[in-house]
Amino acid sequence: MADEAQTEKSNERVVITLRAPVKYEDVEKKELVLDFGGLSGDDITAIIKAAERDNGGNPMTVPALDPHVQKRAAAKAAGVEVGLIGKLGAKDFLDVAGAARDFFLDL
């Protein structure tokens, strides 16, 4: 287990080495590769709509800052289930959510 997560950024691709492996539905991950550049406009709008449902149907003022949007965007970009992102340790989750936030705010 590493003391700190290692993050490598290259354009719209972020590689995050997790502090601790995460297992979800027989899938274990030690690293997540977030390919935000591979997302489409349809992906983004679907992520925001699903996140609004997660948030009790309430629309968001700034989707980029909403943890539901960040979690769903990270899962889609990594090609994993949303539940896997939710099972990350707190610090790993914040690293992953922060990468999603940075992607949205960099546009």
What would you say this structure looks like, in words?
The structure is a single chain. It is built from 4 helices and 3 strands, in the order βββαααα. With 107 residues, the chain is an alpha+beta fold. It has one domain. A 3-stranded antiparallel sheet has the order 1-2-3. Helix 2 packs across helix 4. The N and C termini lie far apart (34 Å).
Notable traits:
107 residues, three-stranded antiparallel β-sheet, 4 helices, 24% strand
Put the structure in a nutshell.
45% of the residues lie in helices and 24% in strands.
Overall 3D form: globular
Mean pLDDT: 90
Count of helices?
4
Strand order in the sheet with the most strands: 1-2-3
Query: Segments where pLDDT lies below 50 for 5+ residues?
Result: none
The termini sit apart by: 34 Å
Rounded to the nearest angstrom, the radius of gyration is: 13 Å
Fraction of residues in H or I helices: 40-55%
Structure classification = alpha+beta
Strand content: 15-25%
- Sequence of secondary-structure elements: EEEHHHH
Number of domains: 1
How many runs of DSSP E, i.e. beta strands?
Answer: 3
Biggest beta sheet summary = 3 strands, antiparallel
